[in-house]
Amino acid sequence: MKYESTRGNSPVLSSAEAIKLGIAPDGGLFVPTSPVTFSPEAIDRMSSLSYGQRATFILKEFLTDYTAEELSQCVEAAYGGSKFDSPEVAPIKKLTGDTSILELWHGPTCAFKDMALQILPRFLVKALEKTGEKTHIVILVATSGDTGKAALEGFADVPGTSIVVFFPEQGVSAVQKRQMVTQIGGNVHVVAVRGNFDDAQSGVKQVFGDCALKARFNDRGFNLSSANSINWGRLVPQIVYYFSAYADLVKEGTIKSGEKINFAVPTGNFGNILAGFYARSMGLPIHRLICAANANNVLTDFINTGTYDRNREFLKTLSPSMDILISSNLERLLYLLTDRKAEQINAWMSELKTKGSYTVDAKTRNKVKALFWSGSADDGETLATIKEVWERQNYLLDTHTAVAVNVLEKYRRETGDATYTVVASTASPFKFNGSVAKALLGEETLEGKGEFALLQDLSSYTGWPIPGGLHGLEQRPVLHQKVVNKEQIGDAVQEYLLT
Ligand SMILES: *Cc1c(COP(=O)(O)O)cnc(C)c1O
């Protein structure tokens, strides 16, 4: 399998090269040059496989320049050990007669980013070996929360790599901060930046754009890279859990083999749901993909009208990992739905850059509408959904997953579609315990309580255990204390690498 850019101006490359580069040299995103499809029999056979075997079965079709042994090693290192606290890796739980929850948060950081970031570093290290690259990879990440910790866990002590994560001193929760500053690993650095997320991000972008600095790093054998969600190596592992969920539903007798189901996905950068689109185009019987947004509902408007318009206020919500105005991975969908018209993609993306908006043609709009349905839920609806689902089903949702459950209810009311639906659950409720406790116990009971006390309260109230990744967090030693201004981000990286 080869990879081409959605902008049409980059060489066609192997998967190892595409993963090493992350973003294509022409600014586009890498996509496989030809479709992969599985027969209904092949999909049936997955029911008797473990998660790791299902992963290898799917990955080998896309990463054809990796040997079977290399892929098994990557899969085993990511999903085989004790990093995930569930033997099924991504277990499925029945919510009601027509709905199951796919729990994607059993990894070390309790959010779905682990599904991809546990394996991407393994792909990357092999990609360096395979392409004869001798440099040491330095991953720079600016994070507003979930990605930073997941990247730290994924890259910690991976040979041939280092990682430096910058987080806004004021912009992450107490739990998220504690998760990062207690990170163990000989190759990890965590730095607080004075300011908000934009300050951290613009500071990191400046380092990537500083040619003189990059040359100095290259001279010393370092190669800067990012682990962001447009890397094909992050998208491809996400396809696996769509197949895995289906295989489990067939296995437990909830659906018949070949029966079509829906997926409802809490969406931000469009990476998770795009993996669902890939699964569907590979033959997985999916009827509708339900794209759930919070109050930052750019995607809902796009799916309903064909116009993508980022000219709107950026809202901070209780589902912060979906607070996004530019969903980068949408570019891959548009490329495939226009039958790979790179020229068209270039035109739309340059309009997005200059005007902040673009409108797709009627044919593309209709294709999007036939596959996707989208709605949004505000913070009030999110909290009400957490409370309702706990009271009715005794199941605890985090704020992101609650957005998806709420939007699924809207979908069913509006369309009357009774198709069995799987909701992708993207975070443990304990990761966003402040909001979840508020939904269940009311604002008054939170008065004066810290996030760590709330973890315990929530656990006592629900009888759900605090996940290993968050347990005892308050007692772990702080290993990273550096704080910088955004102008000093480059200096901090230099200090770590060159001295
Ligand atoms: C990243 C994230 C999302 C959004 O996923 P995308 O692939 O960016 O659409 C949703 N929920 C949680 C908890 C996340 O961390």
UniProtKB/TrEMBL annotation:
UniProt cross-references to Pfam families, sorted A to Z: PALP, Thr_synth_N
In this chain the Tryptophan synthase beta chain-like PALP domain maps to 105-420
Similarity remark: Belongs to the threonine synthase family.
The record's listing under InterPro entries reads: Thr_synth_N, Thr_synth_N_sf, Thr_synthase-like, TrpB-like_PALP, TrpB-like_PALP_sf
* Broad EC category: lyase
* N6-(pyridoxal phosphate)lysine PTM sites in chain numbering: 113
TM segment ranges: none
Tell me a Gene Ontology molecular-function term this record carries. Answer: threonine synthase activity
State its cofactor: pyridoxal 5'-phosphate
Threonine synthase N-terminal domain boundaries: 2-79
* GO BP term (any one): threonine biosynthetic process
CDD domains membership = Thr-synth_2
Q: What is this protein called?
A: Threonine synthase
Keyword Lyase appears in the UniProt entry: yes
PANTHER family (UniProt xref): THREONINE SYNTHASE-LIKE 1 (PTHR43515:SF1)
Keywords associated with the record: Lyase, Pyridoxal phosphate
Q: Which GO terms describe its cellular component?
A: cytoplasm
Q: Does the keyword Transit peptide apply?
A: no
Q: List, alphabetically, the SUPFAM superfamilies matched.
A: Tryptophan synthase beta subunit-like PLP-dependent enzymes
Q: In which domain of life is the source organism classified?
A: Bacteria
Q: Which organism is it from?
A: Desulforamulus ruminis (strain ATCC 23193 / DSM 2154 / NCIMB 8452 / DL)
Q: What is its EC number?
A: 4.2.3.1
